[in-house]
Amino acid sequence: MAQKGVQVIAVEPGSLAEGAGIRPGDTLLEIHGEAVLDQLNYQFLITREDEAELRVQRPDGSTFEAFVENGGEGIGVDLAQDEVKVCKQNCVFCFVHQMPKGFRKSLYLKDEDIRLSFLYGHFTTLSSSDDAELDRIVRERLSPIHVSVHATEAQARIRVVGNPREGDILRKLDHLLAGGIDVHTQAVVAPGLNDGETWQRTLNDLWVRRKEGRGSVLSLSCVPVGLTAYRENLPVVQEVDPDFARDWVAMWAPAVRKYAKANGGEPWLLLADEWFTRAGIEVPGRAFYSRSWAQLENGVGLVRRFLEHSRRFIKTPRAKGFAGRRVLLLTGPSFAPTLNRVAAELNRTVGSHLRVVAAKNFSFGETVTVAGLLCGEDLKYAAHADRDAKGGRSDWVDAVVVPSASLRTHTGPTDQYTLRGVVVREEGAFLDDLTLPQLAEDFGVPTVPSGATLSHLLDHLEAADRGAFRGGSLQSSFHTAGLNLPQGAYNP
Ligand code: SF4
User: Fold this and answer.
1) Is the pLDDT of residue 416 over 60?
2) Nearest residue (CA) to ligand 1, atom 4
3) Strands of 447-449's sheet, edge to edge?
4) pTM of the shown model
5) Which residue's alpha carbon is nearest to atom 2 within ligand 1?
6) Do 104 and 414 form a contact (C-beta atoms < 8 A)?
7) Could you say which of 3.30.2350.10, 3.50.50.60, 3.90.550.10, 3.80.30.10 is the CATH number of the domain covering 96-300?
8) Best of 96, 158, 159 for a ligand 1 pocket test (most atoms within 8 Å of beta carbon)
């Protein structure tokens, strides 16, 4: 770990830190004689014992020591954001390599940081994790983490991640498992690259590493590769077409049930929703997915969970809040059929007028069908086309709904991790930097994010009734995970 100490940016008045003479601008060098590496490490060190010996550096370079009796709690400092680590792979399906030019700088960042994996469930290929970092994960019990395995056979993995030094993922995994760290795993599957026998071996190698108690492979998901239209000068990767997706479902959906049975009823092998939506097959029932919806953020079970929520919600009195509303719901083509069915049922039940339009992704190419990668311009185009088709009236709908996932930052720095020189956009911006208020102004009607459920959506529409989504002042409630998330192509 290169970083030496973490800078203090604020000290809470009356806090233990203030009492110890710590000021903003100081650097926290050590706690209990151990170097403070980052925010996460600070949390680990400061909460380890009831008291803490600190070594602190002033901006002029002088240092002093302080002793605090903190009862295993924080001492009242805000620390500077950590810099995100950058991945050392060159994956053949890396989404960043397939980005068209001209987007904001942070979207071209290939972040791969074990801290993000622990905090937010991001997947990492462990390329930037050397043995010292693996030891740290074990020591600080950063469990569970999420690892992109892709293939356990060395040559296959090297082909996928494009890095000759990163073939032996099992060595790194075993290091973590032996240290008691649990791991969720995934393989992004590309036809001819890591399917067939390679996939079968990956499955077998990971299954034998599942066990009772700590240090287990908790799950393995398979996600179909996602390709954009921008692959000039990149290795040829075959897309997952509907036939391939149908064959995959036919072959592996029964295996999901078989592995679940052998795992005490808890699904362990997980199939991403994209297999079903690409194949044009109805997603399976609730029992097909983990009880805790493991890997939901990776697109496993989103459609089923949405259907379950919706079915229950439509029966509640609250659903009547939709009555009479004329709402245009924009989403990606892969989620549109599901949303359409739900909207039709809601309309029938409460007398609402929800309409679903599948927005084409002109920004990344029409092969990209997930809602989370729709740009502001794509949504604008779809809404304008709908308005024109309805006679061009400015009040053609009462409100437009955009996918929440298209407004969220899925790559690049988060609010905890930053990259030097990169300005983090305010929340509420689409990938192409258009903002929700700009879209609302363009449409001339309230424009709100979908949220993850119909209940969230109704909250947002009611907030719009009160003007809460106007003028760019976004409520934190819009930031709801789960619905319309990007596909695995967005994950390492
Ligand atoms: S897919 Fe992820 S791990 Fe692979 S090159 Fe891109 S950012 Fe790195």
Assistant:
1) no
2) 91
3) 353-358, 326-331, 399-402, 447-449
4) 0.85
5) 492
6) no
7) 3.80.30.10
8) 96
